[in-house]
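Amino Acid Chain and Its Fold in Token Form
===========================================
Purpose: to set a sequence beside its fold so the mapping can be learned.
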Amino acid sequence: MLFDDLAPSSALQLIGFSDVDAFRPIETMEDARSIPLDIPNFAAARAVVSLPACRIIMMRSFARILDAAYRMPGGMVILSMTDDLQVNFKGMDLDARFIVALRGNDECHFVEPRANHYAMIIFSPALRDRGWFDHVDDLQALVANRPALLHTRQLLIDILRTASVQPGLFETTEVAGHLQEGLLLALDDLFRIDSIPDRSTSVQGERAIKLVQRIDDYVATHPTTPIYTADLARAFGVSIRTLGGAVSMVRGMSLHQYIRLKRLWATRSRLLKGGGVTVATCARAHGFHHLGEFAAAYRAIFHEAPSDTLSRGRRSGVSAG
């Protein structure tokens, strides 16, 4: 299952519980109270990873009645990590299509008739509001976009596995910030409904095109710099939702996908020129600092390893624009 490939590390707290009394201290710290419904088969597990402005908690819960007093000034998102979620919230039966979101405080009551696997992402108040939470002090259940939900799940699993096997990466602010930005962008997609205000299509299109042109210019003039959505929106004087919606309208993909695609093509262009460069120097020169992730993304787009592209460039001397 989800916990089988994980081992504790300096970046990943991992603990299993075989009886409810061992689990109680965790609940006490988080102002939650459970009534187990199946004590003979009790089992729970918890994995925790911290990023610069958020904390990821993945849980294997147990059959229970749960009362929780959430205090989330920066916000919280909970999503199912499997497709067999069963939970009742405020008298409403929820399944794996739903996510729940809260910014502020709320007293919440759940019933879990069976064990569930879910992730809780808790945000620092220092993180800029990204337009996810429509109401303060009211935990809400929302139907998630299915592809965005699956992408977010996989990203969370990848972060936890990386924390398990490469904990040193989380000591580097740049890498930890990169992982967090990928997660924030995935959540942007998860929450996106109407990214651009409802005006005439032509006006929307013109504004979106201008925003995308500004993004193109920014990427071209900052080839090595990590680009964070919140910083980009602040620099352009627009909301994160507007920025992401513009890229979706004009380019048909998320902002994260678009910037990565542009940088991958720029890297490929340089590799095809050959010369004395290396794959690593080319990747870093175009903003890719996690070389394993870069190689996987490159192969997914171009169906060859970056080293193969470089070898071809050195043989042919081709110059790609």
The first strand starts at residue 12 and ends at 17. The chain is about 45% helix and 25% strand.
